Amino acid sequence: MKPRTLLATVATSLACASAFASAPDIGLSNGYFGTEWRNQMIDGANQQFQTYKNKGMADKLVVQQSGANTGQQIQDMRNMIRQKVGAIMVDANSATALNGVISQAQRSKIPVVSFDQAVSNPYATNVTVDHYKWGQRYAQWIAEQLHGKGNVVVLDGIPGHPAAEARKKAALDTFAKYPGIKVVWSGYGEWDEAKAQSVMATVIAAQPKIDAVFTEDAMALGVLRAFENANRRVPIMTGEAQKGFLTEWKKQRDAGNPMKVFVQVNPPDISRTALGIAVRLAQGRKLKPLPDNTYYFPITKTVTAENLDATLATMSDKPDSYFLGQWLSEPELDALFAQ
What is the annotated signal peptide range for this record (predicted)? Predict the structure, then answer.
């Protein structure tokens, strides 16, 4: 090999090594965990991260899960700041309680991306579904199916959780517009199938007439099983784009149950979209201006009786716990940034 060629090869190798060495770490602080949705969310982030790592865009994904302990989540984020990660992603337990530690990240010039639900600190970039509109869409569909009259149960996630409270408020606000709709019970199932089934069984025993149920996530399957165990049918319900629920819905339909169901995707893979934004911010790229510094992930996938079979066919190789995925492509992510 000629000396000049050797020098060029060495220089190229050093440049590549330097690029990988300087690739940023990304922190991911998750609050509540243990549900199938959260498990898929973390798995999706880990899978997507490998793409960025292989391209030399990032080095390590540091995942910390605090559970419902907001104080622990704050400490986890402080640790990430001390570790000098390139950006912090957070699925927050609270819209306001993390504001102080987010300001600490700002002082350290570390970008923060709050995903799944928004936080109120204006420094953070929010990447989330509009949970109020999401819940409003479900409630409006129920009101229309009921023709403005009937007894409704509202079963949502974790008390005090920003997403759960926004959806619940949207449902109650919408139903309040219809004098003929009576919310006979409203409460929480903690986004857990078994918990929701237990809660719903108690509600069914106390309510002789239930015309519709507003619910989502893994709770939907629990609700359906509670009605089955009580030898009753739920005429109208919202559900979840999870294989287990969709499979049971199909079973009920094929057995002659005429219940009406509407499902819209709430993608756990929003973590992939948030990660793509966080990696780019860590590289120093600038987002185009966003209203309220928030990117509302567009929900374009829904499941109805018309496309139930086709949707299940796309999930044939997935476990029952699988939620229908949706996330931004790399070109769509790049389009959010100034060139």
Answer: 1-23
Of 157, 175, 153, 178, the C-alpha closest to 166 is: 157
How many Cβ atoms from other residues are within 10 Å of residue 52's Cβ?
23
Q: For helices 131-145 and 162-175, give the axis angle rounded to 10 degrees.
A: 30
Tell me the CA distances in angstroms from 319 to 49, 134, 144, 315, one per residue in order: 22, 26, 33, 8
**Bridge-based pairing state of the strands 260-264 and 61-65:** unpaired
3-state class (DSSP) for residue 19 = helix
Helix (H, G, I), strand (E, B) or coil at 160: coil
Given the structure tokens 């600038």, which residue do they identify? 286
Q: Token digits for 44?
A: 């999706």
Token pair 């605090």 is found at: 66
DSSP state of 86: S
pLDDT in tens, 291-301: 999 999 999 99
d(CA 201, CA 228): 10
For residues 24-41, one letter each, b for 16 or more C-beta atoms within 10 angstroms of the residue's C-beta and e for the rest, the string is: bbbbbbbbbeebbbbebb
Mean pLDDT score of the chain: 92
User: Domain map of the chain by residue range?
Assistant: 11-129+268-297, 132-264
Q: Which two tokens stand for residue 51?
A: 């793409």
- Amino acid symbol at 54: N
Handedness of CA 173, 174, 179, 182 (dihedral sign): negative
User: Residue type for 85, please?
Assistant: V
- Is it the case that residue 16 has pLDDT exceeding 80? no
pLDDT tens figures, 56-103: 999 999 999 999 899 999 999 999 999 999 999 999 999 999 999 999
Q: Does the domain spanning 11-129+268-297 belong to CATH 3.40.50.2300?
A: yes
Cβ pair 155, 200 in contact under 8 A: yes
